[in-house]
Batch of 2 targets.
Target 1
Amino acid sequence: MSDEVSINEVQQEEADSLESNNEKLLISEEHTSETDEILDDILELPRGQALEIDKTYEITAAKMTKLIVLAGSVESGKTTLITSIYHLFQRGVFAGYMFAGSKTLIGFEQRCHSARISSKNSNALTKRTQRGISDSILHLSLRDNHYQEEKKDLLITDFSGEDYDSVIANVELAKLEFNIIKRADNFVLLVDGNNISHKNYRQSTKQQSILLLKTFVDGGLLGCDSRVDVLISKYDIVKLRCEDPKILRFIDTFKKEIETDFSKSFKQLRIYEIAARPSPETEEIGLGYGLEKLIPNWVESNSEHGHNEYVEYKPNSYSEFNMFAFRTLGHKNGYENEG
Ligand SMILES: Nc1nc2c(ncn2[C@@H]2O[C@H](COP(=O)(O)OP(=O)(O)OP(=O)(O)O)[C@@H](O)[C@H]2O)c(=O)[nH]1
Ligand SMILES: [Mg+2]
C-alpha cells in the first residue's frame, strides 16, 4: 500500500514537473518572440568611426556623393590633409563652405588627436596609417555659406602609403587593389614636399610619383574622364629650403614633366602647392595653405558617375575596394551579369 502511494506520488510529481517545464517553455517562447520584436525595433547607431567601404553604401545610395581618393607614398601627408580640412571647417567658413555634419566624427577626432596639445606631443604629429586597414573612409557634409544650394557630401579615402608603394609599376596588382579609383570623382596624388626638396631624395620621389600615375593609367584606373590633382605637400618646408635655386628649378621641371606626360591623358590635371599643417617657423604660410582652391573643385566638379547613369565597369576581383565601386556604380555592370 505504502509502495502504491509512493508510486502515485512520484507519478504526480513527474506530471507536475512536466507541466511546469511546459509552462517555462511557453514563457521562454513568448520571451523569444518579444525579444525578437524588440531586436527588430533596435536601430544600429552609427559608431562615428571611419567607414569601411561597404558601410558607405547608405550615404552613396541616398545622395550624390563625391568620392575623393587621396594617394601618395608613405608620409606624403594624406592623413594630415584630411585632419586639416576637418580643423579648418571647425573654425568656421572656409573656401565658401561650412561644416554641415559628418558620419565619421570619431574617425576625424582619432586622426587629429596626436596633433593636439592634449596629446602631449611637442610637435604636431600624424600617426602612420596602417597597411590594409578596412575602415578608411571619412565622410564630410558641406553647405555653401549663403545657404543657396543643398548640402554636398564628400567621401575621402585615407589609405596607407604602404598600400600605394606596393603597387608601383605593378599594373595587375594595382587593378586588383585599387579598382575604387575608377569611381573617384577626384584622384589626388600627394608628392612629399619634404622629399622632393631634398637633394638625396628628390630624384626617387619624382620617379615614384610619375610611376604611380603611369601604373594607374596603364591599368585603366585613370583615363580621359579623370580629374587629377597633383599636390606638392609640406610647402612650408620647400619654402624654408628655397634659398637654394636648384630646389625650385627641380620642382618646376617636375611640374612641367607631369603636365607634358599626363595633361592629355585626363579630363583635368591641376598641380598645387599645399601646406596642410605648416610648421610655426613659416609664418607667411598658414594652416591649410593652398586648400581654398582645392576644396571648391572637389565639391563642385560634375561627376561622370551619377547613380542613374550607366557606367561601363566590370570589377575583376572581389576585394573590398572593388566591391565599393561595384555597389556605387550599380548592378547593371556588376557580378550579376558575369556568366
Ligand atoms: N611641415 C609640415 N609637415 C607636414 C605637413 N603635412 C604633413 N606633415 C607631416 O608629415 C608627416 C606624415 O604625414 P601623414 O599625414 O601621416 O602622411 P600619410 O601620407 O598619411 O602617411 P601614411 O599614413 O604612412 O601613408 C607627419 O608627421 C605630419 O605631421 C605640412 O604641411 N607641413
Ligand atoms: Mg596616413
Target 2
Amino acid sequence: MTRPESIENRWDILYRDYPEVYAAFSSTPYQPTIYEQLPAIVDLRGQVIADIGAGTGESSRSLAQYAMRVIGVEREMAMLQQATASPERGPAEPTGYLAGDALALPLADDSVDIVTGLTLALYPPDRYRAFIREGLRVARGLVVYVGIPPGWYGGELYDVIEGFERVDDVVDRIFIEEFGFSHQDIESVQEYGSVDHIVSTYGFIFGRRVIDHLRKVGKTSIRWRFRVYWRA
Ligand SMILES: C[S@@+](CC[C@H](N)C(=O)[O-])C[C@H]1O[C@@H](n2cnc3c(N)ncnc32)[C@H](O)[C@@H]1O
C-alpha cells in the first residue's frame, strides 16, 4: 500500500491503517503535557481508572504514573496492538488493555473509581451521550473527558485546516448544558523538532493545505488548547 501524503482528517483511516503514524504524532513531546496538568484539576492518586479510547497506550501509561491501576479500553485492533507492543516505557505501566466500545463498556456497574476519555473524539457527537451514560454507570467516582474547545481542532492552525465538520459547539453543549459537567481549559505546546517530522505526522493527519502552510512558514511547533470536563 503506497502511503498518501495526507489522510485529510480521516481519523478512522489513521487508526486502522497508520497506527504507527498516530503513535509518532501522539508521542511528540508536549510542554507541559495534559497528564502533568490533569492532577491539579482531578485527583488521580491511588485510583482505579478505566481509560476509554486508549489508542496506542500513551494516555493509559501516563495515567498509570498517578493511579493505582489503569485498564485501557480500545475499539481499534491495530491501535490495541501498538499499545500492547510498547512495553519498555519505564515502571508506570497500565495493568492491561481490553478490546471494547466506549458506547457499551465491557465493565460492570461501579467497577472502577474514574472513567477517562482522553481525546477520545467520538463522531458523530451524539455518541458522547452514550459514552457519558456508560461512564456514569461504570465509575464509582468521576467521569473525566479531555476534548478540544470550540475553534481549536488541530490546535492553533484551526483556520488553515479544511475538510472536517465543525462540531465543537455540540460537544460543549452535551457535556456542560445537558450533563452538567464542570470544565477548565489547559494549554500545551507540541515541539516536533523539524519541518519534515511535523509534515509527516501532524501534516499527514490534518491535510495538504496544512502541509503547504507548514513548509511555507517553516513551522515546527503547534500550540494546543484542551478542555477538561469532569463530573461525579
Ligand atoms: C485521539 S486517540 C486518543 C488515544 C489516547 N487516549 C491518547 O490520548 O493517546 C482516540 C482513540 O479512541 C478510539 N476510539 C474511537 N471511538 C471509540 C469507541 N467508540 N470505543 C472505543 N474506542 C474508540 C480510537 O480508535 C483511538 O484509538
